[in-house]
Amino acid sequence: MMESRPLLELSELTVASGGATVLDRFSLRLDPGESTIVLGETGCGKEALLRVLGGFAHKTDTVTGTLRFRGAEMRPSAWRAKPPIRIAWLANPLSQPFAPHASLADQLARVIARKLGAPLGSASEELRLALERLPGTVTPQLLDAKPGRLDPVTQAIGLLACVSAQTPDLVLADHAMADLGPGAVRMLLEMLAQERRRLGFALIYATGGLQPPARLGGRVIVMRSGRVVEEGDALRLMSGHAHAYTRTLFKALPQLSLTETRPRSSARGQPLLQVHGLMYGGKTRDGLTFELRRGAALALVGEEGSGRRALLRAVLAFEPAASGRVVFDAVDLNILSQTMASRIRRRIAFITGSDESLDPRMSLWDTVEEPLRAHLNLSGDLVAGYREAALKRVGLASLDGKRLVGRMSAFDKRRLQVARAIVSAPLLAVIDEPLRGLDAFAQTIMREVLIDFRVTQGPAFLVITSDFTVAQALAEDCMVFHEGRLIERGAIVDILKAPREEATKALIRAVTLPDLSQAGASV
Amino acid sequence: MSAGQTLEASPPLSRLIVRGVGWCGLGLLAVTVLLSDFIARAPAGMADPSAMLNAPSSTHPFGTDLLGRDLMSETLHGLAETGAHALFGALVAIVCGELFGAVAARLPVPLARAIRGVMGVLAAVPALLLTILLIGLTARFFAPLAAGLAAAPLAFVRAFDRVDVDSKHSEYARATGIPATTLLHRDLTYEFREMLGSVAARALAAVTIILSTASFLGFGAEPPARDLGLMIAAAKATYLAAWWTAACPAAALVILVLCARLAAGLDEGEQP
Amino acid sequence: MRSFLARQAVRLVVGVLGAVVVAAVISAIGVPRGHGLWGFLLAVAGRLAHFAQGDLGQSAISGQPAWQELGERIPSTLKLVAEGAGLALVAGVPLGLVAAVGPTRRAIAPLIQIITATPLFCAGLALAYGAVHLLHWPVSVNTPVGAAVSPDEAFEIAALPIITVGFAGAAVVQLALRHSASQASGGAFRNGLKRLGLSAFEIERSFILPRVMAGLVASAGEIMLALLSAAVVAEWVFHRSGAADLFVKAVALADWNMTAIILFMFACLTFLAEFAGRIAAHALASEGAP
Known about the structure:
The complex is a heterotrimer.
Chain A: E1 8-17, E2 20-30, E3 35-39, H1 46-53, E4 61-69, E5 72-74, E6 87-90, H2 104-116, H3 120-133, H4 140-143, H5 152-165, E7 170-174, H6 182-199, E8 202-207, H7 211-216, E9 219-224, E10 227-233, H8 234-238, H9 244-251, E11 271-279, E12 288-293, E13 297-301, H10 308-315, E14 323-328, E15 331-332, H11 338-345, E16 348-352, H12 364-375, H13 380-394, H14 410-424, E17 428-432, H15 440-457, E18 460-465, H16 468-474, E19 477-482, E20 485-491, H17 492-497, H18 502-510, H19 516-519
Parallel strand pairs in A: 3-8, 3-9, 6-7, 7-8, 13-18, 13-19, 16-17, 17-18
Antiparallel strand pairs in A: 1-2, 1-4, 4-5, 9-10, 11-12, 11-14, 14-15, 19-20
Helix pairs in contact in A: 2-3, 2-5, 3-5, 5-6, 6-18, 12-13, 12-14, 13-14, 14-15
Chain B: H1 13-34, H2 36-39, H3 71-104, H4 109-123, H5 127-137, H6 143-162, H7 168-175, H8 180-216, H9 228-235, H10 244-264
Helix pairs in contact in B: 1-3, 1-10, 3-6, 3-8, 3-10, 4-6, 5-6, 5-8, 6-8, 8-9, 8-10, 9-10
Chain C: H1 2-29, H2 36-52, H3 66-101, H4 105-116, H5 120-133, H6 151-185, H7 189-196, H8 200-218, H9 220-237, H10 243-252, H11 256-285
């Protein structure tokens, strides 16, 4: 007989933390097998919701309201008893949920064993069976490595298998696929949907990105500052019949365009970077030849491990190439002394999605001023002037200049990198996955900041991304990589219109959203 | 530290209190030492043959030693001398150890590795033995310098290893033409300066122990110097019967080291 | 694991060779030589050649071959260090665990600070005082104790130096444990695994504890350094005849050859302890290269 009571009932759930209300009178009813996507920016309340539902309220949280699982009331701030339903947590591998010194398979098996109350041997078997059911080639033997040796997508598949092995009633997904690359996100969401169809678990998926609602469909709750802005079907919300905030949120969803909207600049300007017959990465292949002119923009598109960064390292002479010649600003970097090469490198800036180029010990001001102080002999006033202008350009002028980089948010750090690049006045800006770790609005602003940087300062862009929408927003031409090889090159618009290679098509599919009205997408 | 990590939040209140207590203690000891001539009941070395090995009393709060000298006065003067020597030695250890280590880490790789190798060998030998060796090669007068130089290799290795030369932000900085001197400036400004207080206090604690032990073994200060280690060595003959002759200078030594250790904030987060 | 072992072995060999060179430099100080830097370098090269041939020279204290004198003295020092190490682990590990993760750690930490701030020779003298006055043991800190009459007396005479060395070792062990526990507890995986569904106890037992113990064994070099330093002091305070006592006499008599050899030995012991510690730590909790 079907269970008639709702699986989960939340009534007027309020969470206050450190004196501030982070979740305000949230109510939700979830029936068995139903899914809900909780969508909003960082700090909208979805994190607080998930931690209360998972039983991990912080000591500083004050939680009021009613929480019921299948009619049984639980104390929302601290569970005294085990809930009467099986709850599984789907974590993001990039949040480093695993002990680095133990095998991943062992850790997943222990989780399954604990959740099912089964011996470790049985749990390992369940994990193996769950992995077999998932498409792909991830096996328990593959997972029997330390997490540091496995790529995040493999870990994500392991986590998904761990969840399905628990045969849960409810799955709480905490930004489970954020920043894994659009191709991987698409694949993993499809796997999640498949497992949901098979096992019939309910799902609450917290996300700041727009891919999950666009791909999974179903009910979406849009939140802002701890409150529900709107709730409804994904199709309706995405079609424009929605609250103004929701409409703005979904407008941030980047779409591919098959018509050229910007004049191509690749034909203008003197050559900045010329690569002739470059062979790199230890693979035997025909040498690569291409050119990047001043002010132009080229995107290297491909999944992680496809060879884009190997090319970058060879082009910028970080690693010796097997053969070939690279000329940057009319100078061959490989034949220069280190001192001379260092002088040339001042005209290169890096903006990375992992913010690795920033020293967390430095302050905001010092980070922006350092290139000026290191390379030019300017007075303090001039340095301060350039610094302020750069920070204003990226919207960081109001922040305390003595704030340490290590204590800044990802969005602020990303813009700080652009500010530092602005003062360097580079000829070439290398932009590596610039939108990683940012929520939807922040991604929109970051795209604008980068475009503004290019328009006002005029550097050439070399963009590394796995997302064709990012490539199209920031560049005109692209080279597509797959398994260490260059497979296609040309104007982005032309490639989007007529991709030749299967890998290129997969990359395009990864950022092309399904028509939810056709798919009956609610799984 | 890698840029992928965020800095920890400000040190907890308990740690700040511990360090505060340590620095206050050191400050009090410094004041006591400066005022020792006023606080002490007798000039240094003044012997009273009629008051030999007297137990602590109202006349002599710390008792007297074998020669009838007031132990409170002797301890205060000993603290002054030991403290001053240890301070000098700590300065040597900081410059030749910590500072040199931070600089050496940014030198060209082959040179940096060679220096690290030599210092690693010296750091593998107990600092006390190195001190004794250096004193033997020079003279007992150079004991504070020897203690500082002996403590330097371990400090060097710690400072050298602390610098993350291969950190991502260093790599990107080099990739954009930031010179090694600027990277060194970063290390010295943001890390070394932050830690200078705890580094100095830790060096003071280490050098105090080394110096006093060397004096105890007969290699440090020589009579008529008022070194605490020397006083305890002299008290070895009498302390089993007259415990105060060793206990008082030992207590002063322990308090000095304890305050320095607390000021260094030596707790869970620090290296042993 | 193999590449890690190879790297550590190379590190050990390079360290030992470096120690040989440093020993040759010290030994050359006492060798008659020509003037200037070249004369000194030739003397160093000469000492290296002698060492390579197994010729360790003569002891200036007894006139015997250095290796013979060391052979008589080293075992006693090594025995003292080993026994002190055993005591250090027995006392230091539980103390370190309680101080690191126990509920009383905030109360215990200041106490430990006070105890470990005591210079070792003071601790040795305090132990001797307690042994004489409270336990009536036949301990002397002024003259060498005569031969023991009974096994009990032999134990009482031997115990204090061991306790002194063990005390120093325990201080370093507990500090290493606390440091290691602090680092192990700071990982994001603790929270992550808890959210995935593991209990706090299982996380501590299966994942935190190996890391903590790995951190401890990785500090084997520093622990050995502390034990050797303590052995020098203990041998001097309690008039035990050993290599440390020989070192002090060698420096006093300017026998730089003997000095160099003893320093080389101590350095090798530290390198070996460091090597063994790193291997053990890797086996317990390596993170694997990405």
